[in-house]
Write a structure and sequence with these properties.
The complex is a heterodimer of chains A (472) and B (119). Chain A is of the alpha/beta class and 472 residues long. In chain A, 60% of the residues lie in helices and 7% in strands. Chain A is built from 18 helices and six strands. Chain A has a six-stranded parallel β-sheet with strand order 3-2-1-4-5-6. Chain B contains five helices and no strands. Chain B has 119 residues and is mainly alpha-helical. The longest helix of chain B has 27 residues, at 62-88. Classes of the chains: A alpha/beta (472), B mainly alpha (119). Chains A and B meet through α1, α2, α3, α4 and α5 of A and α1, α2, α3, α4 and α5 of B.
Chain lengths: 472, 119
Amino acid sequence: MDATTDSTTQLFIDAAYIVTGICFIVGLRLMNSPATARRGNTVSIAGMVIALGATCFQLDFAASWWIGVIGLGAGAFVGIYFARAVKMTAMPQMVAIFNGCGGGAAAMVASAEYLRLNPDLGPVPLDLSIASVLTAIIGAISFTGSVIAFLKLQEIMTGRPIVYPAQQVVNGLLLVIALAGLVCVAIGYLPLTAFFIALGAAALLGVLFVLPIGGADMPVIISLLNSFTGLAAALTGFALNNDVLIISGALVGASGTLLTLMMGKAMNRSVANVLFGAFGSVKKSDGGGSSVAADATVRESSVDDVATMLAGSQLVVVVPGYGMAVAQAQHAVRELADELEKRGVEVKYAIHPVAGRMPGHMNVLLAEANVPYPALIDMEDINPEFPQTNVALVIGANDVTNPDARSNQSSPIYGMPILDVDKAEHVVVLKRSMKPGFAGIDNPLYALDNTSMLFGDAKASVDKLVTAVKTM
Amino acid sequence: MNYAHLLSELTIFVLAVFVGVEVISKVPPTLHTPLMSATNAIHGIVLVGALLIAVVAEPHLGPALSILAVFLASLNVFGGYVVTQRMLAMFRARPQAAGDDKGPVRDDLTIRLTEDWKP
C-alpha cells in the first residue's frame, strides 16, 4: 500500500484487521437472542475501534491530519446527535440515511483511488480499475437511493409510488450507460471520463429506482440498499487491497441480501416484482378486483362496547401496523394491555413480517413501550391461535389482514401470507377512516359480520379504551 | 494484475459471504431491525478506506471532498452504532419496574448509553 509503511507495521495492521473481522462475526452471532444482542453490538464496536486504531498507523498525519480530525469529529458529532435525538418511530429513515452516507463514502473513496491510479498516465491493473468503477456505481446507487428513501419516509416527499411513462426504459438505459462506462474503464477507452459518466448515471438510477417504490415496500428497499452499501464496502476493499473492508462488506452484503429475500418471501413477491412492479400501477389496470360487494356495509362500534368486549375476553391478540407507528400509539397500546392483564385477560401481539416500514419495525416500537418480547408472536405461530381468540384488535394494519390475499385470485395481493384475524370471534379494527391501505385495495375484512370498526386516530382511540377499561 | 492476490481476496470474500448468511439466518425476526442497523454500522468500516484516501500528503479529491468522504463514513459508523444501541436497550424479557413505564427519555437513555459504551 503506502510506501511509508514498513512490513512489520503492515503485519500488525493485518493482524488487527483479522481481529476486527472476528469481532464483527461474533458480534452478529450474539444478535441471535435479545438477551445477548447488546453485548454483540459492544463487541462489534470494539472491532471497529481496533480497525480504526490500526489504520492510524498507515496514515500520513504530518501532511493532512486536520482532514481526518475535522471529518471524523464532525461525523461523530452529527451522527451521535441525530441518532440520540430521533424518535423511535423515525428509525427506518434514520437507518436509511446512515446507510446512504456509507454508500456515498464508498463511491468517493473509489473515485479518489481511481484518480490516484490515474489511467491517463499509464494502464491501471484490470482488477483495481473494475473494483473502483463498480464501487462507484453501487455506492452511488446506494447513496441517492437511500436519500430518496429517507425523503419518502420522513414525508418530505410523498410516500406513494411516483410513476411516469417509460420508467423501466429510462432505468434500463441508465443501467446500460453505467455498464458501458464500466466496459470503457476496463478496456481503457477514455477511462476517466467513462468513470465519472458511470458514476453520474448510477447516481441518477438510484433516484429513479426508489421513486416508484411505495411505503409498504420500504422494508425490502431499505434492506436491499443496505446490502448494496455492504457490497460497495467490500469492493472498496478490492480496490484498496484491504482485507477488513472485504470481510465486513461481504458480511453486510450477505445479511442484507438474505433479509431482502426474506421480506420478499413474506409478501409472496419476488424482489424483482417489488422493484419493477410498482404496486400503484396494479390498481389502475385492475380497477375493482375486490371481493367486497358494492352494497357491503361496515359496522361502527363505540369505545364503550369495544372496552366491554375486551375486558370480557380471555385472549386478545393485538395486530399492529404502520398506522400504530404513525400515531405513536405503542405506549397507549401497552397501557391498554396492562389494564386488560390486570383483569385476567391474556394479551398477545401478532407480528406480520412486513408490518411497518422496515424488517422488525413493530418489534422495536413495542419494545420501546416495554412490551416483553416473548409476547410478540410471529405470523406462523399466531395464526393457529386466532380461532381461539376472543378479540383481534387491529391497530393501523390493513393489507396484512386482508382475506382477499387468501381467496381472491384477482386481488393484487393474492398469495401474500396474511394474519388470519377474520377467524377470531370478534375483530375490532382501529382506523382513521375507510380510506384503503397502501395497496389501494378494499379490505373485505371490514364488511364481515364479526368485524366492527372504531374510527379515529389510533392513539386517541386506544387512550379512550384505556380510560373505559379502567372505569369498569 | 496479480492473480494470486486477487484469488486470495476472492476467497476471503466468498467465505465471508457464507459466514454472513450462516450467522444472519439464526437471528430471530424480532431482532431484524436492530440487526439491519448493526450491519448498517458495520459497513461504516468504509471509514477505514475514507481515512486511507483522505489523510495523505496530497488527497486526490482535494481537501473539501476528502473531508466530506470521511464525514459521511464517520456519520455512518457513529450514527449506526448509537441507533443500534438505542434499539437494543429496549428489548427486555420482562417489563421494567413501575415508575419507569414512560419509555426511554433522553436523560436516562444517555446514562444507559454511556454505560454500554464501556467495552
